[in-house]
């Protein structure tokens, strides 16, 4: 990709490229444009982080509170060490999912990564809810965490790349705060199950299976929401990127096209600069480099 051209004074010129006449624009979120479309995107991200919190809270509540004697009996009354392992091993799956995104995420795209994550989480939830032994429960926890790693690594990026600059930080930070909301939902769900007999398997199987509601809801929303315009532009789908930018920019078609042209210019400029810098290696996470990867990495960890 070439750097943006310059005029006789050395200033960069903006090449405004609209969608080609042969391109048929998509309609997203039931034909919404502007703020309603952004709200739909934010809702999909919010569901994802509610699920993250719910996942963390629902399993812990089963054995810490002692709500279900059937749960303990099914797994042969495991000691606290084994229970802690079953709970914590979920994070191993999360780590694996995040590494997978690092390796293949740019190839798959933001939405496809989230679809993969949703499929893995559905399998993991089914394995957990139907478990009759510790090995199956552990496998279910790992698979569910694996899918969560995909989603957690990609969803904030997808939301930020589809949000207006003035509200981008607020929308992404609100979603992170919803993790606590998911934990609260899980705890109240477990409290509701406490009114059933403690020997009833529904007391623990239903809350675990309920993860599927969040997973299916987000996947269904993704079907009517756009791909990241930055990813589209990077993969030579400029017309579609322009269309998405126009629709998230404004309810008005003409105003949306005008704003989209500005955003598209900046995206192309950043991509051109990144390409001019060349590919980066994992070693730059520790030695920095022209793109300051180490600094970004440390800020994210903090």
UniProtKB/TrEMBL annotation:
Subcellular location: Membrane
Topology class, membrane: Multi-pass membrane protein
Recorded GO MF terms: carbohydrate:proton symporter activity
Transmembrane segments: 82-103, 115-132, 138-159, 171-190, 202-225
Span of domain Major facilitator superfamily (MFS) profile: 41-302
Database matches in SUPFAM superfamilies: MFS general substrate transporter
Xref: Pfam families: Sugar_tr
PROSITE patterns reported for this sequence: MFS
Keywords: Membrane, Transmembrane, Transmembrane helix, Transport
A cellular component annotation (GO) from this entry: membrane
PANTHER family per UniProt: MAJOR FACILITATOR SUPERFAMILY (MFS) PROFILE DOMAIN-CONTAINING PROTEIN-RELATED (PTHR48022:SF28), PLASTIDIC GLUCOSE TRANSPORTER 4 (PTHR48022)
Similarity field: Belongs to the major facilitator superfamily. Sugar transporter (TC 2.A.1.1) family.
Protein name (database record): Major facilitator superfamily (MFS) profile domain-containing protein
Organism: Penicillium steckii
